[in-house]
Amino acid sequence: MRRDARRPGFLPLALLFGLFVLFLYGPVITIFVLSFQGPDGGLTFPLRGLSTHWYGELWKGLGVVDIGAALARSLSLGMVVMVLTVLLSLSAGLAFRKPLRGGHLLFYVTVASLIMPSIVVSLGIALQFRLIDAGLKALFDALGASGLAERFGTSLGLYTSGLGAHLTWTLPFGLLIMFAVFNRFDASVEEAARDQGASPWQSFRHVVLPLIAPSVVGIGMFGFTLSWDEISRSSQAIGELNTLPLELQGLTTTVTSPAIYALGTLTTGVSLLVVAIAFGSASWLRRRKRGVAH
User: Fold this and answer.
1) For residues 185 and 182, what is the distance between their CA atoms, to the nearest angstrom?
2) How far apart are CA 81 and CA 77, in angstroms?
3) Is residue 170 a contact partner of residue 230, using CB atoms and an 8 Å limit?
4) Which pLDDT score, from 0 to 100, does residue 1 have?
């Protein structure tokens, strides 16, 4: 049977889609290509040789910036944010399966950070922690620990204000995904496990969790990637030590060599690797679930 001829509007729409994809990924491809410039390469085309010279320069350090330390900080913070986003989103999803007093208000308060300007959230968190600093110093003075008050710097930091700032961005996405999953979840399979004598924990571990595992992996992916490249919410609330995206933003005004492209390629590669691992894990979990079902 002959295939139907494509409609007249197919080619213009295909061209428009191609231009859209080029607009999205063209800059990433350009940075990737320019990162492999030769030792005499510049920031623009044409290429002057092909080499990994600028990746070597990157690991030697870019001025006063310790790229390795910034990379380690971003990776560790991203992992903590990922774990907390999964645990809190999953817990909230389970809690909201039953009527919860004040649940609607709690939900709207949680997702409100999605519509608030990121810089406002960052400034608000920074101000809150400065008030905490003032309160702690006043408490130390009241207790007669003036030396401790003098040595105390600030409670702003990577795993205090910085962690909170990132969670205001990742948690709403995790909650929305989890609510959507449980809205279409067939509770009869859980009830069947209970009828067979399974405890609530056994029912969750052996029935509910395997069924929602691909979505949990997706939440983890969102948690890490959103934290990994976050700038606005980190700018005022991160404390004294910068994450890699903040260092990269600062370097764009001082580094005038393709080493900045090598750093951009490295950070993009980490994001793509996490996405690939998440998709691979979700696909494996779906195949395993179908195999168990059959």
Assistant:
1) 5
2) 6
3) no
4) 45
- Backbone phi and psi for residue 65, each to the nearest 5 degrees, phi listed first: -85, 130
Closest CA to 174 of 226, 115, 232, 101: 226
- Measured CA angle at 112 (ends 111, 118), to 5 deg: 110
Residues 144, 145, 149, 154, Cα dihedral to 10°? -120
Answer yes or no: pTM beyond 0.90: no
Domain ranges, ordered by start, for the chain? 67-253
Q: Which residues, other chains included, contact 81 with Cβ-Cβ below 8 Å and sequence gap of 6+?
A: 163, 166, 167, 170, 223, 224, 226, 227
The mean pLDDT value for 105-133 works out to 88
Give percent of the chain with pLDDT exceeding 90. Answer: 31
**Whole-angstrom distance, CA of residue 229 vs CA of residue 117:** 17
Cβ atoms within 10 Å of 193's Cβ, excluding its own: 18
Contact 287/226 with Cβ under 8 angstroms? no
- 67-253: in CATH 1.10.3210.10: no
Cα–Cα distance list, 206 to 96, 127, 250 (Å): 20, 45, 48
What residues are paired with 62 via a beta bridge? 65
SS3 state of residue 197:
coil
Closest CA to 230 of 175, 277, 169: 169
Rounded distance, CA 64 to CA 25, Å? 31
pLDDT at position 287 over 60: yes
Helices and strands per DSSP (H, E), number in the chain: 13, 0
Separation of alpha carbons 261 and 54, rounded Å: 8
Going by C-alpha positions, the residue among 223, 124, 225 that lies closest to residue 176 is: 223
Mean pLDDT of 236-262: 84
